[in-house]
Write a structure and sequence with these properties.
It is a single chain. The protein contains three helices and 70 strands. It has a 24-stranded mixed sheet that branches. Strands 5-8-11-14-17-20-23-25-27-29-32 form an eleven-stranded parallel sheet. It is globular, with a radius of gyration of 27 Å.
Length: 769
């Protein structure tokens, strides 16, 4: 990782007087002033404007008049305990208006039942939408109970949709940067939540969907739309009961993520990813379903989906880059032909499908997996059946669509070899390098090499595991006795390192070379590092490089390194880091770094629930050059520089940034180093010819930032490089800290801020000329 002395604590051309020199494009709390107050605007009760709210009187005209008269910053109140009947479509087309209050809107005409949000920055919060009796499923725009009709920045929060003639919540028309949070949908004729029509850059957080007529949560893109829905994230959805559809689905779309799903009692598949010819949908390019449960899937005996189905029913579109991982599946209809399927029927492309870490539990189909695609198009790994490991479904183990049902496959075969039996001593003194390396070299695919618990195996040179498909485990310890030759290198496909401790003797300084990274993933595909403890390193604790692909670091603990805790670089791609704990490291806690000389940036890296506690000389989490990098639920404490850092650095000639999403968490005690002025969150471009674009930091609580820092949050450039589409949203700044909340020397057209608080009080958007 670039050393602290070269980092932009005070970028060239921006002196200590930066606060006074910059354009404050959104807000600033200046030294000696209090935090800005709430947004100023009228508060208008619809009752005061003539609506009755008795559930019988048609209040359509009065409601629409209030909506039409509202101005930016106004709040329209639907008082709790009142039910406002409307017999026609209602439309809120005034930008920057909030509708709230706890009241209910009752649609009395199923054919004209929509509430339409049709302006930028509209907020609908704490409102119930109901409907009278519905006779059938309808399809038109005016029949979707709540409709987000294009525009940017719409927020729907804590809204309850109880019944709909079509979908409960319908997002379309090219809607962008929308947020659906805490939405509850029940009793619809069609989908619970339906996202379509080129919608992009949206988040759906903790929706609860029950007893709906079709899919619970669906992202759908039609070829006629021209562009697919893109960059949609759905966090912690609960789908409980689909009378005629799937639980969660992507039917045409790009870069769609579902996380921590809970799906119960669906008619068809619980998880469905597809391009459909009959509906002429778009193809699929990038879907990631990460973690959760699917229970009671595919109850409908007239549709044979199983619990999870990836499908291409088109002749000329592709379904590619699909990941379903870490999902527990139980109670799938036993008469279904399989639990999981990958099926094509019209000749369209399927590629790079990864079905990993699936746990199939309890009664269900006899066959675990069916595909009529070549095994080169997909990858399976880490499946279990009632807790027993299943082999990868490849080559002769693949069941094609016409295969007869069979019982669950058994555990993977292979030798189990203890390094002690092969001559290693493990007393922490004897140099076991030669014996260990001999065992690694002799291992064959499927073998397990055991480092017995309670033993410490000293090695005075680099160790390399270059045999594909080998697992090293056992609870033992590898002690590096030479800081200059201290690496354990994983250098083959499908290697697994699990439940091992890596330590090192005393280190004299920070080193930089490959052979000094304590654990190195050196290229290759499918490497898994799980429950590994790295205690000390002369360089980084875990170093991933060389174009490593489809790697998984899970439950890794790193302490006491000279450089980064976890460092991902060198064109690495399609990797996941799950629940790492990094403490007392010399530089960044978890870093993704791409150099321009690499040729391609690191891409599609996801880091879930990282804990970084103590960085003696760097940042907490960082992306310094990279594409499509996501951090979620971060916990960062006591960092020398920024807690969150996203940058292109000229001094280190890094790549630009295109797509970084930091979603939720806490940053505490950031920027303790008085010689570097980062604040808690810093987005930075120090290059003249690269871009930092499409950066989102949202839902993060920040506390205890060094008070003498010039700001809590910064967006800074110093060499003329492009910055665009930076969104800093829902940040909560709590407790003592800098006087100034936000500093930027970029035009306010390059970024967007929304929903910040200071000690619980909303901060006021203020445009400064």
């Amino acid at each position: 990782m670039p050393r602290r002395a070269r980092r932009p604590g005070r970028p060239a051309g921006i002196a200590l007087g930066l606060v006074a020199l910059v354009v404050l494009g959104w807000w600033s709390v200046r030294p000696g002033t209090d935090a800005a107050g709430p947004v100023v605007g009228r508060v208008v009760s619809v009752v005061d404007a003539g609506a009755v709210g008795d559930g019988v009187t048609d209040d359509t005209r009065a409601l629409q008049a209030v909506f039409d008269a509202a101005a930016p910053g106004d709040t329209v109140v639907l008082p709790a305990g009142r039910t406002f009947a409307h017999g026609d479509v209602l439309s809120l087309a005034s930008a920057g208006v909030t509708v709230t209050g706890g009241g209910t809107l009752l649609a009395t005409s199923e054919q004209r039942s929509s509430l339409v949000l049709a302006a930028d920055d509209v907020v609908l919060e704490d409102v119930t939408l109901t409907i009278g009796a519905t006779s059938r499923r309808w399809e038109a725009a005016e029949q979707q109970r709540l409709r987000v009709d294009g525009h940017s920045g719409v927020v729907v929060r804590d809204v309850r949709v109880q019944g709909s003639a079509a979908a409960g919540v319908f997002v379309g028309g090219g809607a962008a940067e929308f947020l659906l949070e805490g939405v509850q949908v029940t009793g619809t004729r069609a989908d619970g939540i339906h996202i379509t029509g080129r919608s992009r850059d949206g988040r759906v957080v903790a929706p609860v969907v029950r007893d709906v007529g079709d899919d619970g949560v669906a992202v759908v893109s039609y070829r006629s739309d021209g562009q697919p829905c893109a960059r949609i994230v759905v966090d912690s959805p609960v789908v409980d009961g689909s009378r005629g559809g799937r639980g969660i689905s992507v039917v045409g779309g790009q870069d769609v993520t579902y996380r921590d799903v809970t799906v119960t009692d669906t008619y068809a598949a619980g998880i469905y990813v597809a391009a459909e010819g009959g509906w002429d949908t778009a193809g699929v390019d990038g879907v990631d379903v990460q973690g959760g449960t699917v229970t009671g899937a595919n109850s409908g005996v007239d549709i044979d989906h199983g619990a999870v189905l990836v499908y291409n029913g088109t002749p000329d579109r592709a379904v590619r880059d699909v990941v379903v991982s870490g999902v527990t599946v139980a109670g799938t209809r036993p008469s279904a032909s399989r639990w999981v399927g990958l099926v094509t029927d019209s000749g369209g492309e399927v590629s790079d499908v990864r079905l990993e870490g699936l746990a199939l539990d309890g009664p269900g189909p006899d066959t675990t997996f069916v595909s009529n695609e070549s095994s080169t198009t997909y990858r399976t790994q880490g499946w279990t059946r009632d807790g027993r490991p299943l082999p990868d479904h490849r080559d002769e183990q693949v069941l094609d669509a016409g295969a007869a049902a069979s019982g669950p496959a058994g555990p993977v075969a292979g030798r189990v070899v203890s390094v002690v039996d092969a001559g290693a001593v493990g007393d922490g003194v004897t140099d076991d390098t030669r014996a260990l390396q001999a065992v690694f070299d002799a291992a064959a695919p499927g073998d397990t090499v055991v480092l017995p618990a309670g033993r410490t195996f000293a090695h005075g040179d680099v160790l390399s595991l270059a045999s594909a498909g080998v697992t090293v485990t056992g609870g033992g310890t590898l002690l590096a006795t030479s800081e200059q030759r201290s690496s354990l290198v994983l250098a083959a496909d499908d290697v697994v390192l699990e439940d091992v401790t890596l330590t090192i003797g005393a280190t004299s300084r920070r080193w930089e070379a490959a052979e000094q990274q304590r654990l190195r993933v050196d290229g290759h595909s499918g490497v898994v590092v799980r429950d590994v403890r790295v205690q000390g390193s002369a360089a980084a604790g875990v170093f991933v490089g060389g174009g490593a692909a489809e790697f998984l670091l899970e439950g890794v603990q790193v302490t006491g390194t000279r450089a980064d805790g976890i460092h991902i670089t060198g064109r690495s791609r399609d990797g996941r880091v799950v629940a790492p704990v990094v403490r007392d490291v010399g530089d960044d806690g978890v870093a993704v770094v791409s150099y321009r000389s690499d040729g391609q940036p690191c891409a599609r890296i996801v880091v879930d629930s990282p804990v970084v506690d103590g960085s003696r000389g760097g940042r907490g989490i960082s992306v310094v050059g990279g594409q499509d990098v996501t951090y979620r639920d971060v916990t960062v404490t006591d960092t020398y520089a920024a807690g969150i850092y996203v940058a292109a650095e000229g001094g280190w000639d890094t790549a630009g940034v295109d797509g970084v999403d930091v979603q939720g968490g806490t940053v505490t005690g950031a920027n303790s180093g008085v010689d570097i002025d980062h604040g808690a969150v810093l987005v930075y471009n120090g290059t003249p010819d690269r871009a930092v674009r499409d950066v989102v930091v949202s839902g993060v609580t920040v506390a205890g930032t060094r008070p003498s820092a010039s700001r809590w949050v910064g967006l800074v450039t110093d060499s003329g490089g492009e910055v665009s589409d930076v969104r800093l949203e829902g940040l909560a700044l709590d407790g003592p800290g800098p006087d100034t909340t936000f500093v930027s020397n970029e035009s306010s057209t390059t970024y967007r801020t929304q929903g910040w608080t200071r000690d619980g009080r909303p901060l006021l958007p203020r445009q400064v000329p």
